[in-house]
Amino acid sequence: MDTEMAGRKTCDIIGITMGCASGVGPELLLRFWHDQDQATPFVPIVLGDIGVLANCARQLNLTVPLKLWQPGQIPREDALNVLPVSQLDPLPAWGHPTVASGRAMGACIVEAVRLIQAGELAAMVTCPIGKDMLNAGGYHYPGHTEMLAALSNAPEYAMMMAGERLRVTLTTIHRPLAEVASALSCQGITRLLLLTARALRVDFAMEHPRLAVAGLNPHAGEGGMFGREEIEIIAPAVARANELAGGEFTVSGPFPPDTVFYQASQGKYDAVVAQYHDQGLIPFKLLHFRDGVNVTIGLPIIRTSVDHGTAYDIAGRGLADPASLKAAFRLAGRIALNRRRGGDNHVS
Q1: Contacts of 61 (CB under 8 A, 6+ apart)
Q2: Which site in 61, 100, 255, 312 is 20 to 30 Å from 129, CA atoms measured?
């Protein structure tokens, strides 16, 4: 064993969950290993199924050495290290998840959280899951975010989409557009502003974050002509967040949604709080379709994820792009280093 490997600590390891065995997760992991950034101080280990990974490598003619890993061991840096959480038999077909594969994807998430809490992993990165089969497998959560919050006992959490040019958090997420206005509250927007600012300060090491808030209506309501949500809900939330900032961050807005994302992408703001899913995700994916990262903020553990789904339609066809996984791994490492340097082990 060389000197660098001998000096490797368990806290320098980032776990990557395989996600759905029938989706693009296995291929992403194999291609990620080929393309990973050698400059990072962190070594990846996969929580998943070594049989699925080996089968994927054979079918796609990818030469990736796979090595079994167990907690406490020094990971091999010349191989893709795998902690075997499942042994699926028979192997599920590409694009056709099963109850067994749903149970396996859930078990990987549970084990990753446990290993972070035990100090064996510095962070976790997640490959995409199928939410229906996650529930069929016995894990009754809407998705990763809610499951991780429950496993880590986090009462306040949110999803941030992060890229080099734009960061976005969402006041409402998977909700019909017709229900968005009634779902907005001054308290909810204020809470999200505080969570976003805290994440930017601790996880992104920004000394004085600048947050912008998008209005709900065209022209941010045009003084009430096109809706009063900006006047009655959003502007009071902005004012309240600034009262609570204590000089640590600033919040501006509400701004017309058709201009604020451009201004943030040009460096005027460090993050934008959007009012609903597509308002924030359309501009974000326009800029970061390949390299966007989903970060769960507010957790005591570090979790980043690819910004796409299981892509069952292309699974096993050799078309999966690992760009988002690579970006998620880099960001998980960056957050881990920032928390260490700041002496902050959790986000409160």
Answers
A1: none
A2: 61
What are 7-58's pLDDT values in tens digits?
445 569 999 999 999 999 999 999 999 887 656 789 999 999 999 999 999 9
Spatial neighbors of 280 by CB under 8 A, at least 6 apart, are: 161, 168, 169, 170, 214, 272, 274
> Is the distance from CB of 34 to CB of 321 less than 8 angstroms?
no
Pair of tokens at residue 65: 């050495």
Q: List Cβ neighbours of 107 (8 Å cut-off, separation of 6 or more).
A: 85, 86
CA distance 313 to 258: 33
Q: What is the pLDDT of residue 41?
A: 86
With beta carbons less than 8 A apart as the criterion, state whether 166 and 286 touch: no
- CB < 8 Å & 24+ apart, contacts of 231-235: 233/184, 233/185, 233/186, 233/189, 234/184, 234/186, 234/189, 234/275
pTM of the model: 0.92
E strands in 54-101: 66-68, 80-84
